Amino acid sequence: MPFAADHALPRSGAVSTPARRLDPDQLGDHLDRLYRAAWALCGSREDAEDLVQDTYARVLQKPRMLRSGEDLGYLLRVLRNTYFSRLRAAARRPRADPLPDELDRIVDPSASAPEAALDASELYRMIAELPDPFREALVAIDVVGLSYREAARALRVREATITTRLYRARQRLAHSLGTERAAGDGKTG
Amino acid sequence: MRRQRRHSRALERDLARLADGTIEPGRREQVERSVAASDELQTRLGEQLVAVAAVRTLASERAPATLRMRRRLLARAVGPHASGQRSSRRSRRRTPALGLGMAGVLVAVVSVLVAFGGSQAGLTVADAATLAVRPATGAVAEPPDDGTTLPRISAAGLPFPYWEDRFGWVATGVRHDDVDGRVLTTVFYGRHGRHVAYTIVPGTSLRAGHGVRTLRRGDLMLSTFTTGHRLVVMWLRRGHTCVLSGAGVPLSALVKLAAWRGHGTLPY
Description:
Largest sheet of chain B: 7 strands, antiparallel
Number of strands of chain B: 9
Order of helices and strands of chain B: HHHHHHHEEHEEEEEEEH
Distance between the termini of chain A: 46 Å
Structural class of chain B: alpha+beta
Strand content of chain B: 25-35%
Strand order of the largest sheet of chain A: 1-2
Largest sheet of chain A: 2 strands, antiparallel
CATH architecture of the largest domain in chain B: 2-Layer Sandwich
Helix content of chain A: 55-70%
CATH superfamily of the largest domain in chain B: MucB/RseB, C-terminal domain
Number of helices of chain B: 9
Radius of gyration of chain A: 19 Å
Strand order of the largest sheet of chain B: 3-4-5-9-8-7-6
Number of strands of chain A: 3
Low-confidence stretches of chain B: 80-121
Shape of chain B: elongated
CATH class of chain A: Mainly Alpha
CATH topology of the largest domain in chain B: Phosphorylase Kinase, domain 1
Oligomer: heterodimer
Low-confidence stretches of chain A: 1-15, 95-118
Order of helices and strands of chain A: EHHEHEHHHH
Strand content of chain A: under 5%
Number of helices of chain A: 7
CATH topology of chain A: Butyryl-CoA Dehydrogenase, subunit A, domain 3
CATH class of the largest domain in chain B: Alpha Beta
């Protein structure tokens, strides 16, 4: 259940830290990490761009009061909520038809699609396919780089819980990677 | 049973933290000893390490230049509001109205951003295609009889096609956009209420991006993808990127237009 993005202050913990206004100029410092998190949530680069933009638009709609040092965790939380809002909205919209495919589809040897980029897309896709709680833990800690404590606060779960989820997320991801490699070996061999 | 489960979870947490190096030093030694003594634990730790290493490779992935620009413009649009003082009761009472006003500003900014993107390092075909939803700023003239190119409009020495006689697409206007030193020229065409936009991006060819299909028509290689509701076709003419996009226009029609060489008068 996503929680309201408007309430940036945590319900518990670190209450002694004074609240301060979120500085819009500093939001750009987190753009790369948020973009990666968005990509890992959506599994698509294009959707990730839109998601990050919506997240910033949402955050910037009104002044936000935050405790010190929790900007990134807060942004991740808004990103996550925005992601679920978009999913719900998308579920209500009719789906577009696939592209007509009446022409030859061939491998373009000159296409600038380096393997690394392809691998990244594949990896993001695998992360996006993880069950929600596992994916969120992995995104918060491994992709965004929050500490376990920060991630627990951002996602509002216990630190032990998020660590267990992270373990399982990585385990599944490793299996997916193994399966993918095995399939690749099978094709080439 | 319950105790066993608790132990199992504690072990999972230890392995997770051991894999990314956040385990407490005192605990590390103990867990490492357990792992060394168990093939199963070695496998499980190996899985954690594989995943951690894989995800770390993503750290070099940077947000595209267009997204940076969008964020900057958004921040600029709300700057005075965000940094303003709103502590008085009066200003608090005005919050809903301000909120609505700000929503309007944001919508406007986002609309502009959707139609405008790009930066030197990260200009993509999708960015160029977004120009298609911006208005024309200039008129186009008709060519003389049997003409196949539009007069007085070109980009990087490449003329734009005149499609009206051959395909029924009427050139309706032109616009020029300077995106980080590149002047992108876009000609708009219309037919039966449908519109397409043809942009020529001079200079090095653009990154096609993700989710692209490659097609061939004769000896012409084309890439196609969708962005929003628009179908986009991209190809090269003399090393310059050409982008043709339209909403509700079939791919076959776009490809046919893109591949038309005006009986040899359009340099490819």
